[in-house]
Amino acid sequence: SYSWSPDSRYLAYDVALPNQFTQVRIWDAIGKDVHPASDPMFNSTSAEWDPDGKYLYYLSDRVINPYLDHFEARFIINNATVPIVAALQSDGQLPFAPRSDISPNAPEKKPDRAGKDETAEAKKEEKVKPIRIDFEHLPERIVQVPIAPGNFSSLSAISGKLHFLGTENRGMMPFETDNSPGESGIIPRFSVPRKW
């Protein structure tokens, strides 16, 4: 999968690795260079950009809890995937990350009364701001979204919210044709706090 950044400069995509995992990487259309965005020791995919240019989201297999097969004594890994949030700027604050009592908090902005008079036409003319990415240590500036792991795919991001597809493993039995319940997946929605 691949996804262009809101300013159309960067392309986030998956690449297959020799260890049979996939890694999320970012290609810079101006610098013509490639940077890793995820740790190659974890299978990661389905990268999506935060519309506000602060984060990169992706799905990653991080919860390794092997199940023992009943007949052949082999291990399988199920429900290992979680959404990951990566801070694009080195001075950015990650949502869901631990905070201490002395953690700096951004000052609260008072509502702009004059902004209420802004017309809808003026909002349409707002230009997309260029995204700044500090690539050094980017794969390490991450936090896991606090939800139970599952079989997730097809991540999608809108401002302040994440959507992804969750399905249960059903084994190798053939699909039913009567549209019985339980055959389809679910689409969880998770809100990303603007302040943390």
Notable features of this structure?
mainly beta, four-stranded antiparallel sheet
Task: Describe the fold and architecture.
- By secondary structure, this protein is mainly β.
- It has 1 helix and 13 strands; from the N terminus they run E-E-E-E-E-E-E-E-E-H-E-E-E-E.
- The strands form 4 sheets. It has a 4-stranded antiparallel sheet, with no helix packed on it. It has a 4-stranded antiparallel sheet with strand order 5-6-9-10, with no helix packed on it. Strands 11-12-13 form a 3-stranded antiparallel sheet, with no helix packed on it.
- A hairpin with a 5-residue loop joins strand 2 and strand 3 (22-28).
- The longest helix has 5 residues, at 120-124.
- It is globular, with a radius of gyration of 20 Å.
- The mean pLDDT is 82.
Task: Summarize the topology.
Elements: E1 2-4, E2 10-16, E3 22-28, E4 34-36, E5 44-49, E6 55-61, E7 66-68, E8 75-77, E9 81-87, H1 120-124, E10 142-144, E11 152-158, E12 161-166, E13 189-191
Antiparallel strand pairs: 1-2, 2-3, 3-4, 5-6, 6-9, 7-8, 9-10, 11-12, 12-13
The strand order across the widest sheet is: 1-2-3-4
Which percent range fits the helix content?
under 10%
Q: Overall 3D geometry?
A: globular
> Segments where pLDDT lies below 50 for 5+ residues?
none
Radius of gyration: 20 Å
